Amino acid sequence: MGTALVTGATSGLGEEFCWQLASAGHDLVLVARRERLLDELADRLRNVAGVRAQVLVADLADPTDLQRVCDRLDADSGTDGTGPVGLLVNNAGYGLGVPFPDDDLERELRALDVMVRAVMVLAHHAARSMRRRGRGAILNVASVASLTGAGTYSAHKAWVVAFTEGLSEELRGTGVTASCVCPGPTRTAFFDNAGVDMSRTPHWAMASPERVVGEALDAVRSRRVLVTPTPVHKAAMGAMRLSPRWVVRRVMRAIPHM
User: Fold this and answer.
1) What is the value of pTM for the model shown?
2) CA–CA dist 256, 205 (Å, integer)
């Protein structure tokens, strides 16, 4: 079934990507910062799903760590028998939860490195390696926040969407595809980690990670470029595209900062 490399693999959507890909028979390369959690997840995937799972402990904001992940994308095999990476899932990311003028600049630059620079660098290595082999797919995780104009997280995700659209056209006819998923609020630890209170958000407005990942992988299989999981979040994206930008900005004042 091939090998998939997932960044931000140890929690939230990243972990769900790993389980759904493993259930489909894919070997995995797991990338995240926390070695203990990576090892535990790799062991569970091997024992439950019967797949190979290579662990890469890496902080994507660190150039040396990032290069090690690039080296794996360039390679034809891993150290434990995993094959060439046929699917890159650029999932790593996090909310900042603080308005830009109030945040520490180094913290903002680190987020830029993880959610923009690393996405570009890893996609570049993956695209070249996959194009050489004549097949493969890149899946970038963005957000409905890409249309909100709400802080730097929104800006990062807007870049991811535009980057993926351009990349998909540049790869046309090569056997390699690029897709981008734009989830809305999802029931993971994302908001807790960002210090954002979502306790008043209606249950129906929160997607399940299972559905988000399932629809994202379906989009990759059908070679769709953009996908927004769940009808309510599709409607939200449509409304933001049709509304005057000043209206969107005004509405976002009442939404917790990402």
Assistant:
1) 0.91
2) 14
- Torsion region of 8: left, alpha or beta (phi above 0 gives left; psi -120 to 50 gives alpha): left
Classify residue 113: in a domain, yes or no: yes
Domain holding 187, by residue range, is: 3-252
Asked if 13 contacts 209 with a C-beta cutoff of 8 angstroms, the reply is yes
- From the list 153, 163, 190, 191, the catalytic residue is 153
Question: Measured at the alpha carbon of residue 220, what is the angle toward residues 239 and 84, in degrees to the nearest 5?
Answer: 145
Report the 10 Å Cβ neighbour count for 23.
Answer: 12
From residue 145, give the alpha-carbon distance in Å to each of 126, 238, 257. Answer: 26, 13, 10
Residue 22 forms part of a structural domain: yes
**How confident is the model at residue 37, as a pLDDT?**
96
* pLDDT tier, 172 (very low <50, low <70, confident <90, very high otherwise): very high
Please report how many Cα atoms fall inside a 13 Å half-sphere around the Cα of residue 82, on the Cβ side. 29
Q: Is position 53 within any domain?
A: yes
Q: Quote the number of domains for the chain.
A: 1
pLDDT averaged over the chain?
90
Clarify whether 153 is annotated catalytic.
Answer: yes
Q: At what angle do helices 151-170 and 105-112 cross, to 10 degrees?
A: 20
- Mean pLDDT of the 194-215 span: 71
Q: What are phi and psi of 207, to 5 degrees?
A: -85, 160
- The CA distance from 136 to 168, in Å, is 12
Residue 257 is assigned to a structural domain of this protein: no
* CATH number for 53: 3.40.50.720
Task: Label the pairing between strands 53-57 and 136-141.
Answer: unpaired
**Average pLDDT of the residues in 20-47:** 97
Query: What is the pLDDT at residue 256?
Result: 61
